Amino acid sequence: MELAEVVSEAARSQDRREFDALVQRYHKQAYNIAYRMAGNHADAEDLTQEAFIRAFRFFGQYRRELPFDSWLYKIMSNVFIDTLRRKPKVKLRSLDQPVATEEGEAQLDLPDSSSGPEESVLSTEMDVRIQEALSTLPEVFRMTVLYADIEGLSYEEIAEATNTNIGTVRSRLHRGRRLLRSKLKDLENELFL
Amino acid sequence: MNCRRVMNLISAYVDGELAGTEMLAIRRHLSECPECCQEYESVRQVKQALSRLRTVFPRNDLAAAIARRLDEVQVATYQKFYSRAIGFLHGKLSPVAAALAASGVALMFMTAGGIDGLAPQTLRSSVAALGQRTREVAFLRDVSKSQSQFGVTPDLVAASKRPDPSSELQFVSLTR
User: Fold this and answer.
1) Cys bridge to A144: A10, A118, A172, B82, which one at CB 3.0-4.6 A?
2) Model-level pTM?
3) pLDDT value at position B20?
């Protein structure tokens, strides 16, 4: 028993060091996708933390030859479905209300007319509107669209992360994008340049 | 290829996820069909808009907060042993065989020296979980057999064979 405990503890500290390095490397990326899934900072933080905790519990089963982020996304997808869908639907925010930003609260600005089509990042207002539209999608559609269009995962990787097959991924992506398009209809002149 | 088929495949076309022949067939159809071409533009624009969303950053101490929570995570000794065994065996055996072998090794470990430290309830759960795992494997074997008899796609079996770290049915998660 004592020897087993010593061996096990040594392995655990080794795992922990390795896992801490992975947390450092992937937590921002995980948080970004969690935010887009959850729609707000508080839930995104809970989702990120819970995904890492659950990943650590099963770290012994992680196959090192596979990308860690794909494995983490698989866990995060399940945590998201398990927890956030039981909560009330995301609150829709009026455009008159202040928006939480990295620097504190700010009022939404009209799109900057000086920004040309070469601008690679959307204005805050556009960002908020797309986030609102994303939040109205069914969870599985939302996850699939995010993994494809923000993380750039292949259909095979998305199927693995969401516990489904490639045909379902294809269908969810198509329906998810069409739903998004209909929600963003009034913004098409600004968004779809 | 008709419009209905093209509409269903348009997202995969935009994502470059189609095989060469399908891709060429859709490209040819789009050059002749304004309605499908409009759908293609629509999907492409949504994808482009999403890719232009800004990156959202967490608070500066999120990694530290995760580390603090990890400090509180207790993983039972036999569970660690099981996880490491299944991780090791994955490369050597099929997933189901690896799970069975790891379960057996973990049970041996528990009975040899690890039982003393376990609460009786935990032990009962573990043994029950091992039985559950065995039943799952037997079920999967039956499903696999019947699927191959009736020519059904083996997706269910393939999916079920993969270890799912978050599944509440997992042997390792029952003692949380």
Assistant:
1) A172
2) 0.64
3) 84
CA distance A59 to A99: 37
Q: How far is CA A164 from CA A167, A169, A171, B95, in A?
A: 8, 7, 11, 18
* A-chain residue closest to B83, CA distance: A60
Contact A51, A82 (CB under 8 A): no
Q: Do B11 and A170 touch (CB under 8 A)?
A: yes
Q: Test A48 with B66 for CB contact under 8 angstroms.
A: yes
Long-range contacts of B60-65 (CB under 8 A, 24+ apart): B62/A27, B62/A31, B62/A45, B62/A48, B62/A49, B63/A23, B63/A24, B63/A27, B65/A49
> A23 vs B57: CB contact, 8 Å cut-off?
no
Look up residue A121 and give its two tokens.
């990042």
CA B155 to chain A, closest CA, distance in angstroms equals: 8
Q: Minimum mean pLDDT among A159-163, A180-184, B42-46, B131-135: which range?
A: B131-135
B19 touches chain A (CB under 8 A): no
Torsion of CA B23, A73, B94, B17, to 10 degrees: 0
Ordered by where they begin, the domains of chain A are 1-87 (1.10.1740.10), 92-193 (1.10.10.10)
Buried b (16+ CB within 10 A) or exposed e, A116-134: eeeeeebbbbbbbbbbbbb
Of A31, A82, A130, the CB nearest to B49: A130
Instruction: Judge whether A160 and A73 are in contact, CB under 8 Å.
Output: no
List, for residues B130-168, the tens digit of each pLDDT value.
Answer: 555 555 555 555 555 555 444 444 444 444 444 455 443
- Distance of alpha carbon B139 from its chain centroid, rounded? 19
CB atoms A1 and B113 under 8 Å:
yes
ipTM of model:
0.72
**Coil, strand or helix: which one is A127?**
helix
pLDDT (tens digit, 9 = 90+) per residue, A13-72? 778 889 999 999 999 999 999 999 998 999 999 999 999 999 998 888 888 888 899 999
